[in-house]
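Translate structure to sequence.
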């Protein structure tokens, strides 16, 4: 039997057209196809035969490091059956050639990938997040707050008396969680941030001036604070960052591009400011807030009221900012309400809070509040 292919001497990248001859006793000889000079020899039982995969080229590797490459898969299969028989020889080729098994494998792979992304990655992120030391949380939070201050925040313009009053209101809430290093900061949010509250991994909770002005009572502010404490206690911001980092590592493994992963690691503080909490994280923080309100004897309606008001505000901002000749920030509260009602009427909408939800980082508002009431 003769097999045509190319010869690699194992010392350079140069290849030579060659012919591999198989004698009756299993002796192999590789000769230069043009000069017929002997390039290599060995017994068939002493060489290494690469597995068959589709119609890709096969290699007959010699102990010296040299190799003979050929696309004559049938001949290599015959050589393998005669001189290197084994139960598992050719199994990979049989599997990848079986259409039904290929389809089943593809479905199984997609299912495993989906289950891993939906359950495995969040579970892994949770374990990692709760294993990180406080020093790491402090460092990430410091860089994140610095970035927020440069991009979205300015110093609070609330009167000192108002800030002191709010701190006094928050004191009994914070006292309920002595195991957490909690502290509250005030900032004026940019036009994009508006009325909002943020929880950083180290326990720092930021209220924007607009959020304080939007809330109507200490109970409402306490409910929002408890929700943000839930994010701290359950390490949601870290878990969100880690989940995306894990997905990034998987991406690098699949495509072999490490530059994207380096950018991700360098930009962790940026991710912490921009990543949306998942619906699951928001639900967990809502449950945390509901538990606090029930324990403190505060009606859950306090949270519902402030969230609905916030949803209406964000919906109104959306409607007004769509207009080319006016900006939300240029109008007073009364002007906001009047213009919003006019625009909503023109678009055939009502002015309740059943809008798309407040901010892109939160689940559908009405559905979320229904869940909150029934927790």
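Result:
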């Amino acid at each position: 039997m003769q097999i045509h292919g190319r010869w690699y001497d194992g010392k350079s990248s140069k290849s030579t057209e060659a012919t591999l001859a198989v004698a009756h006793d299993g002796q192999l000889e590789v000769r230069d196809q043009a000069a017929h000079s002997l390039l290599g020899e060995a017994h068939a039982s002493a060489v290494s035969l690469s597995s068959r995969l589709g119609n890709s080229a096969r290699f007959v590797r010699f102990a010296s490091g040299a190799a003979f490459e050929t696309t004559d898969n049938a001949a290599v299969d015959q050589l393998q059956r005669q001189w290197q028989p084994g139960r598992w020889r050719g199994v990979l080729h049989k599997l990848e050639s079986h259409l039904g098994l290929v389809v089943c494998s593809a479905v199984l792979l997609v299912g495993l990938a989906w289950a891993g992304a939906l359950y495995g990655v969040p579970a892994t992120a949770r374990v990692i997040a709760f294993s990180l030391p406080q020093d790491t949380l402090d460092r990430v939070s410091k860089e994140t707050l610095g970035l927020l201050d440069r991009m979205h925040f300015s110093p609070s313009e609330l009167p000192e008396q108002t800030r002191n009053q709010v701190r006094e209101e928050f004191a009994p809430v914070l006292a309920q969680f002595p195991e957490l290093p909690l502290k509250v900061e005030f900032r004026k949010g940019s036009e994009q941030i508006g009325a909002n509250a943020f929880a950083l991994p180290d326990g720092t909770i930021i209220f924007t001036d607009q959020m304080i002005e939007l809330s109507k009572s200490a109970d409402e502010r306490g409910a929002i604070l408890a929700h943000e404490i839930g994010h701290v206690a359950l390490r949601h911001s870290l878990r969100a960052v880690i989940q995306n980092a894990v997905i990034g590592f998987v991406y690098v493994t699949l495509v072999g591009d490490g530059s994207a992963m380096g950018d991700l690691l360098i930009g962790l503080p940026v991710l912490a400011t921009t990543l949306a909490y998942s619906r699951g994280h928001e639900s967990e923080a809502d449950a945390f807030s509901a538990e606090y309100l029930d324990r403190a004897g505060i009606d859950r309606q306090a949270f519902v009221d402030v969230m609905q008001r916030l949803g209406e505000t964000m919906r109104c901002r959306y409607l007004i900012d769509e207009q080319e000749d006016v900006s939300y920030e240029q109008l007073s509260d009364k002007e906001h309400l009047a213009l919003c009602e006019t625009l909503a009427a023109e678009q055939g909408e009502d002015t309740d809070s059943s809008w798309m939800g407040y901010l892109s980082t939160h689940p559908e508002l009405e559905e979320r509040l229904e869940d909150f009431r029934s927790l």
